[in-house]
Amino acid sequence: MPARLFSFIGGETGRWRITEMEAIVGEPLPAAIRLEIASGSEIPSDPHASWVLRGITSNERYVDREERRQIVAKLLDLGRPDATCAALIPIRKNEAWWALTQEERLSIFKEQSRHTKIGLEHFPTLARRLHHCRDLSENEPFDFITWFEYAPSDEVRFNNLLAALRAIPEWQYVEREVDIRLERDQV
Ligand code: HEM
To answer: C or N terminus of the chain, fewer CB within 10 Å?
Structure first.
């Protein structure tokens, strides 16, 4: 069974070099120069780690069958040799979001915000993995850890997608978002 738990360790070691860290909303994260990603429950000990973010992949909450068909048909794999750029964007939503019912959240995510459609329109092949944090413990600093990989030539396209998502009603519930950009060492 593939690992579901992932740890993102910001410090001085790891395959990914951090090129930019920007707090879009809320508190920033402490500075780090490299990122290590560990899967499973083992977290490599890095005495110089500035932060460790943990999240777990989960079942979908908001996709219908047709959307899932499109996502599966188009999504590229993580770890492609040409995808040397990445974005790690941890996100926390506010209490008002979590006080909504699942139906209300679905309506905001899908009908009012068109999150999945906007994603597929802007960048149908974007390699991504969504991790949930809330079920791990009560004190995780974020609710979601999002991870994306793309080729350097797709950076503008990725930035346009992000700008479009940050303008949708769903994003009004985001109370903390840190945009971390990375580049991978050539192997
Ligand atoms: C091709 C681009 C994208 C597509 C197709 C896409 C699609 C999706 C889908 C289908 C879900 C819901 C999963 C579920 O059913 O539980 C989701 C959730 C999410 N996505 Fe995206 N997404 C894209 C890009 C992005 C980007 C660039 C961000 C920026 C950080 C982002 C942030 C999130 C977050 C935070 C969630 C969790 C929302 C929640 O459960 O409240 N997505 N995305």
So the answer is: N
Backbone angles phi, psi at 139, to 5 degrees: -115, 25
Atom of ligand 1 nearest to the CA of 126: 1
Q: What is the pLDDT of residue 41?
A: 78
Which single residue is written with the structure tokens 């978002």? Answer: 177
Which active-site residues does the annotation give?
Answer: 128
- Taking each helix axis from N to C end, the angle separating 115-122 and 155-166, rounded to the nearest 10 degrees, works out to 160
Arithmetic mean of pLDDT over the chain? 95
With a 6 A CB cut-off, is 130 part of the ligand 1 pocket? yes
Question: Each residue of 90-134: pLDDT tens digit?
Answer: 999 999 999 999 999 999 999 999 999 999 999 999 999 999 999
- Cβ(91) – ligand 1 distance below 6 Å: yes
Q: Which residue, judged by its Cα, is nearest atom 4 of ligand 1?
A: 119
What fold does the segment set 5-184 form as a domain? Alpha-Beta Plaits (3.30.70)
Domain boundaries, the chain: 5-184
